[in-house]
């Protein structure tokens, strides 16, 4: 038996290129469906984990998927806005903690997430350097954003205009970086966090300007009566919030009417969550509240349907590959007819000769299976990190 | 074998010793970290919380806490506190520009929001597509009405009880004593106001809204700083005012300049101090400071020159010049009823007396 294996091994080693191609082909055809399955499972787990850590999400009525993708992954266009009053309502209900989100603006392609300090606790984010934002105009960077923007505490960032043609609209605000978060391997890594009020200032809903009653603003004043001062557009509006001008920043009207893209609700209990869901079920509601995990499950179902088509294609490919491999062996046997006759003439039994051929097939299959197993193990070990690196962060 | 038995025996003994020990003394509970935005809240918190709380009021001495703006680092310290006591009613505008965790925030005046006094007389302005707008707000020295101060103290007590339920009885006991002291102060002031019998009073700064409303004082406010000499224009406005509002006493937040006092005396107006105590007093605490205020009001009430004419003979003070809003009787605390005196609710903000816009907007000293 040892001799048979030796002869088979020597043959495969001598035709190492052909053997390697056979092993690679068979290994890949085994690895593709298994590895894809592992990768899809891990992607689903990663996506679901983010959704599971967000118990409830409130937003304006519209596409649930858009709302979830914008709020959880900072992807997609900003959904229709709801109001800050919704966050206040949830907080006042005592049923859940409310975390406002206003994700509309960017700074050099990085999303600016307007929120409150509670967001860091809900997402278990910790500071690697500096401190949380404390006053208007301050921001905290995710680890990846800090690396890409080469910024840290003490540096400044400028918000990007929404459109180059938006000359009269949102104007850039210079924000001071006060902290950098530890890497979390989530979309938070590439975000820039500001207080939601700072996001409203970027939008122009709050602003700081010269005191119109001050002599320095006289040239901008068009008319002045006892109870009204009218200024023209030349009045100096600040595009950076500093210790000197922060007192001039103000918001007009009630903040409860100010826009939010979403509110994360973290219920006190399962029962509180159900009650909260019930409150937004009426058709007359202008807001929707949903479980992000359900939305992501629906998305994953779609992905799994696509995966089944891919697997069917791989199965067809596998049949073709195995048929090709069988053909290679059969042709190989025909080409080796004289060699096999020689083996028989020098005393090798027919079973020993057949044993050599079978051993060659078995060795190739075993090596291909081992290679496929190794690749699957690598996928399993590093797939999550790769997904987080290339897809989620 | 014998060695093994010895080891087992020693181990058993050690375990028995540990089991037999009295439970290790519980870690001493760290005091509740409390940050406040003004001195009255600091006083209430320390008095109610006792040793169970560590109260910090980071505004530098001499600054006006209502208009003080903390640095980012100081706000970060507020963020780390277990409880942040806010005065509410728009006091400490920096709060609206800061990121503070919702969980620890306590708006001590939220329970009587319907009794906040709206400011009037602010200047509206137009400078953009959103049209005219004004930066209006509320009078915020709520603690000058002792009944409202007691409600603020109750809110603090409730917050402490929620944070440290084990000490609730102690908190409530201390609150009861404080509420009693505030009620006594309220009675003194009510009696003094009764004795004033509607005599006209001047206040040097429009920060006494809640005091005026509570005791139905016949009061008008100017916008003078105790450490600054009034301009000739300000004197002219005052002299004109005195022709229709013959006040014989002006109450100041702090001791005014000697020459101002003297010139006022020349007009027949005495000066006295009624310290709002928004900032930490140098030589007293909140209650003793308020008692001193009550002493001075009582002295004014006793003084014959303070009430030169019966209020019934005087020109109707509020009827002709009052610009303040008159609150409904439901908006008033359970104060002593006074008949025959027209209520001068809120603070008159005659535009002639204000320099620019609302006098509350900037620089009102505490």
Write structural notes for this entry.
The complex is a heterodimer of chains A (393) and B (366). Chain A is an alpha+beta fold and 393 residues long. Helix content of chain A is 50%, strand content 19%. Chain A contains eleven helices and 16 strands. Chain A has helices at residues 2-14, 16-52, 64-73, 84-93, 118-122, 143-149, 196-203, 270-279, 292-335, 337-345, 350-392; strands at 56-60, 82-83, 96-107, 110-115, 127-130, 138-141, 156-158, 174-181, 192-195, 206-208, 221-224, 228-231, 249-251, 259-260, 262-267, 287-290. In chain A, strands 1, 3, 4, 5, 6, 7, 8, 9, 15 and 16 form a ten-stranded mixed beta sheet that branches. Chain A has a two-stranded antiparallel ribbon with strand order 2-14. The longest helix of chain A is centred in the last third of the chain and has 44 residues, at 292-335. Chain A is elongated, with a radius of gyration of 32 Å. Chain A starts with a helix and ends with a helix. Chain B contains ten helices and ten strands. Chain B has helices spanning 2-20, 39-49, 72-80, 146-163, 168-196, 209-214, 232-244, 258-266, 286-302, 317-321; strands spanning 32-36, 53-56, 83-86, 105-107, 124-126, 133-134, 201-203, 219-221, 249-252, 270-273. Chain B has a four-stranded parallel beta sheet, with helices on both faces. A four-stranded parallel beta sheet of chain B has the order 8-7-9-10, with helices on both faces. Chain B has a two-stranded antiparallel sheet with strand order 5-6. In chain B, strand 5 (124-126) and strand 6 (133-134) form a beta hairpin. The termini of chain B are far apart. Strand 12 of chain A pairs parallel with strand 5 (124-126) of chain B, so a sheet runs across the interface.
């Amino acid at each position: 038996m040892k001799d048979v294996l030796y002869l088979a091994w020597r043959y495969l080693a001598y035709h190492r290129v052909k053997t390697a191609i056979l092993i690679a082909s068979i290994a890949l055809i085994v690895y593709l469906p298994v590895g894809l399955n592992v990768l899809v499972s891990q992607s689903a787990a990663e996506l679901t984990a983010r959704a599971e850590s967000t118990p409830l999400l409130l937003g304006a009525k519209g596409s649930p998927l858009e709302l979830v993708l914008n709020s959880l992954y900072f992807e997609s266009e900003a959904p229709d806005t709801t109001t800050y009053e919704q966050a206040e309502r949830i907080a006042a209900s005592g049923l859940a903690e409310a975390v406002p989100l206003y994700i509309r603006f960017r700074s050099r392609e990085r999303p600016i997430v307007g929120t409150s300090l509670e967001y860091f606790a809900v997402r278990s984010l910790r500071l690697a350097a500096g401190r949380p934002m404390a006053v208007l105009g301050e921001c905290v960077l995710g680890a990846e954003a800090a690396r890409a923007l080469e910024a840290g505490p003490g540096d400044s960032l400028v918000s990007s205009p929404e459109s180059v043609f938006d000359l009269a609209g949102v104007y850039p605000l210079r924000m001071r970086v006060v902290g950098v978060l530890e890497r979390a391997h989530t979309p938070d890594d590439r975000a820039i966090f500001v207080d939601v009020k700072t996001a409203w200032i970027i939008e122009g809903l709050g602003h700081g300007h010269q005191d119109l009653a001050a002599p320095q603003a006289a040239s901008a004043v068009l008319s002045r009566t006892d109870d009204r001062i009218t200024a023209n557009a030349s009045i100096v509006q600040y595009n950076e919030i500093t210790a000197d001008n922060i007192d001039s920043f103000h918001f007009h009207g009630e903040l409860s009417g100010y826009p939010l893209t979403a509110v994360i609700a973290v219920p006190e209990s399962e029962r509180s969550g159900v009650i909260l869901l019930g409150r937004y079920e009426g058709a007359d509601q202008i807001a929707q509240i949903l479980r992000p995990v359900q939305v992501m499950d629906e998305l994953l179902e779609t992905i799994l349907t696509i995966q089944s088509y891919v697997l069917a294609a791989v199965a067809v490919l596998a049949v073709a590959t195995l048929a090709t491999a069988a053909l290679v062996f059969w042709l190989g046997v025909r080409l080796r007819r004289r060699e096999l006759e020689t083996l028989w003439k020098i005393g090798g039994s027919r079973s020993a000769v057949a044993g050599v051929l079978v051993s060659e097939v078995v060795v190739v299959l075993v090596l291909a299976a081992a290679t496929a197993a190794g690749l699957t193990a690598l996928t399993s070990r590093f797939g999550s990190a790769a997904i987080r690196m290339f897809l989620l962060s | 074998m014998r060695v093994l038995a010895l080891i087992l025996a020693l181990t058993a003994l050690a375990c028995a010793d540990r089991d037999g020990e009295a439970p290790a003394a519980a870690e001493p509970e760290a005091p509740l970290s409390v940050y406040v935005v003004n001195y009255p809240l600091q006083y209430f918190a320390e008095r109610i919380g006792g040793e169970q709380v560590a109260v910090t009021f980071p505004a530098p001495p001499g600054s006006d806490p209502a208009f003080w703006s903390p640095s980012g680092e100081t706000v970060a310290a507020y963020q780390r506190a277990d409880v942040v006591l806010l005065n509410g009613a728009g006091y400490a505008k920096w709060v609206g520009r800061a990121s503070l965790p919702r969980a620890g925030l306590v708006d001590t005046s939220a329970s009587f929001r319907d009794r906040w006094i709206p400011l009037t007389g602010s200047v509206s302005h137009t400078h953009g597509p959103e049209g005219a707008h004004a930066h209006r707000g509320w009078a915020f020295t709520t603690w000058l009405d002792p009944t409202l101060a007691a409600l603020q103290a109750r809110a603090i007590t409730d917050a402490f009880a929620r944070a440290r339920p084990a000490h609730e009885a102690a908190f409530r006991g201390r609150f009861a004593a404080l509420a009693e002291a505030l009620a006594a102060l309220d009675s003194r002031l009510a009696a003094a106001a009764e004795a004033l019998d509607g005599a006209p009073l001047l206040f040097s700064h429009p920060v006494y809204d809640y005091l005026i409303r509570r005791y139905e004082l016949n009061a008008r406010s100017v916008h003078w700083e105790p450490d600054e000499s009034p301009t000739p224009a300000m004197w002219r406005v005052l002299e004109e005012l005195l022709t229709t509002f013959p006040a014989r006493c002006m109450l100041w937040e702090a001791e005014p300049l000697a020459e101002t006092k003297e010139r006022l005396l020349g007009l027949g107006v005495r000066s006295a101090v009624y310290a709002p105590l928004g900032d930490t007093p140098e030589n007293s605490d909140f209650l003793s400071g308020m008692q001193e205020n009550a002493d001075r009001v009582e002295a004014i009430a006793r003084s014959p020159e303070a009430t030169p004419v019966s209020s019934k003979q005087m020109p109707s003070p509020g009827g002709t010049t009052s610009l303040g809003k008159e609150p409904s009787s439901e908006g008033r605390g359970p104060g002593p009823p006074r008949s025959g005196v027209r209520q001068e609710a809120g603070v008159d903000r005659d535009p002639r007396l204000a320099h620019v816009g609302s006098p509350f907007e900037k620089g009102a000293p505490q």
